[in-house]
Amino acid sequence: MSSSRRSRQAGSSSRISDDQITDLISKLRQSIPEIRQNRRSNTVSASKVLQETCNYIRNLNKEADDLSDRLSQLLETIDPNSPQAAIVRSLINE
């Protein structure tokens, strides 16, 4: 039995159709810079798209953590009552 057939038979709203998966993979292809820059992005396999998406998210999280650390270090070097300190604190807390 094909997976799309199983999806239709299940009738559950929590199931996702093959067409929806294809659409989501296509959206990821367009969203991930490493894939989007590839002239043959439409030929990249779904598993490669998911792998690159995970790597991209990991890198974004690492960049966010690094920026937060840098802002914390900056905050230690400026007057805590200054307007600049308030801006840095608001950035850290977002």
Task: Give structural notes.
The protein is an all-alpha fold. It has one domain (18-93): MYOD Basic-Helix-Loop-Helix Domain, subunit B (Irregular), CATH 4.10.280. It contains 5 helices and no strands. Helix 2 packs across helix 4 and helix 4 (46-77) packs antiparallel against helix 5 (83-92). One of its GO terms (biological process) is regulation of DNA-templated transcription.
Helix and strand arrangement:
Elements: H1 3-10, H2 18-31, H3 33-36, H4 46-77, H5 83-92
Helix pairs in contact: 2-4, 4-5
Keywords: Coiled coil, Growth regulation, Nucleus, Transcription, Transcription regulation
Domain BHLH: 5-60
Pfam families: bHLH_ILI
In short:
With about 90 residues, the chain is mainly alpha-helical. The protein has helices spanning about 5-10, 20-30, 35, 45-75, 85-90.
What CATH architecture label applies?
Irregular
**Under CATH, the topology is which?**
MYOD Basic-Helix-Loop-Helix Domain, subunit B
User: How would a crystallographer describe the biggest sheet?
Assistant: none
Give the end-to-end Cα distance, rounded to a whole number of Å.
48 Å
Q: Which blocks of ≥5 consecutive residues have pLDDT under 50?
A: 4-8
Q: What's the count of strands?
A: 0
Q: Give the domain tally.
A: 1
- The helix-and-strand class reads mainly alpha
Continuous helix count: 5
CATH class: Few Secondary Structures
Shape: elongated
- Strand and helix order: HHHHH
Assembly type of the chains comes to single chain
Average pLDDT: 85
Backbone CA Rg: 21 Å
Kindly estimate the percentage of residues that lie in beta strands according to DSSP: under 5%
**Can you give the helix content as a percent range?**
over 70%
